[in-house]
Design brief:
Elements: H1 16-23, E1 41-53, E2 57-69, H2 72-91, E3 102-107, E4 111-117, E5 122-139, H3 145-159, E6 172-177, E7 181-183, H4 186-215, E8 221-230, E9 259-271
Antiparallel strand pairs: 1-9, 2-5, 2-6, 2-7, 3-5, 4-5, 8-9
Helix pairs in contact: 1-4
Length: 278
């Protein structure tokens, strides 16, 4: 998002929440001294727009790692076989009727590997190799994700866990699951950002009107520019596991918080006419 944003085309629809915010604004009053009355005055006010939206989809990453293999080819083969298994598992958890759902893999590279056992002060798996790949699932099935995620973890932990004996020098392939992350589709986020910018501009206008009316009425003014002061911030997933008490039932519960879009603007008002108190 560019730092300087064109004001043309932004809507000026105000919400009750913004009116309440402007009423309690602590912005300093606008004053024009008599000897300066003929000069245009520039003042800056901060406007904020904040909107939320339910997530469009959830993203989950699973990393597959093969360690302690005698040759690079063996490490690659073991990793690729495990990746194929994970892809098949995850594809069954996506919506086949939604073209945006899918499973994607991206591999790393093979590199030398060895493991140090601190309790024995010994290095094992010398002159061996490892390879890691990541599989990413994007699914819009938010309503069933808690159950699906529990099933994924159960399979991963029971069939693809880490080395059973870290001190043993043998090839092993295992998988680890990341934290699920909620996301918005690009066009959803774009629309929310534009609305939040419009609300931030309207919020600044309300603050100006409140402070201008406190000093003098009918002060002619215009907005000369406004600048975004910090990037918007999204709110990540809030997750937790529990039984019936948390409403999750079998497999626990995952609660998805709304994703928030925040926009903050420095808005510069130019006062064209002198203050005329009534």
């Amino acid at each position: 998002m560019h730092n300087t944003i064109n004001t043309i085309g932004l809507t000026t629809t105000l919400t009750m929440a913004l009116m309440a915010l402007s009423a309690c604004s602590t912005a300093p009053p606008i004053t024009v001294l008599p000897h300066e009355a003929a000069q245009p005055q520039l003042t800056k006010l901060v406007g904020e727009g904040r909107l939320s939206h339910a997530p469009d989809f959830v993203e989950l990453e699973i990393t597959i790692t093969s360690q302690c293999y005698a040759t690079p080819i063996e490490a690659v083969k073991a990793t690729d076989e495990a990746v194929a298994t994970v892809i098949k598992l995850l594809k069954a958890k996506t919506d086949p009727d939604n073209p945006r759902d899918g499973v994607f893999s991206h591999g790393g590279y093979t590199q030398p590997y060895e493991r140090y056992i601190s309790s024995r002060r010994q290095t094992v798996c010398r002159n061996t190799f490892q390879k890691s790949s990541t599989v990413t699932m994007k699914t819009s099935r938010l309503d069933t994700f808690a159950k699906e995620f529990a099933d994924i973890q159960n399979i991963i932990f029971t069939t693809m866990s880490g080395p059973t004996d870290p001190e043993k020098a043998e090839g092993v392939t295992f998988a680890t699951t990341g934290t699920p992350q909620t996301q918005l589709y690009y066009e959803t986020r774009e629309e929310l950002e534009q609305k939040a910018l419009a609300d931030a501009l309207d919020n600044a206008r309300l603050k100006f009107d409140a402070t201008a009316n406190a000093a003098c009425k009918d002060t002619a003014h215009r907005i000369v520019k406004f600048v975004e002061t910090r990037p918007e911030a999204g709110r990540p997933i809030a997750y937790g596991f529990g039984g019936e008490e948390s409403g999750g039932g079998e497999g626990g519960a995952i609660g998805f918080d709304a994703i928030w879009i925040n926009k903050v603007l420095d808005v510069y008002f130019l006062i064209d006419s002198p203050c005329k108190s009534s």
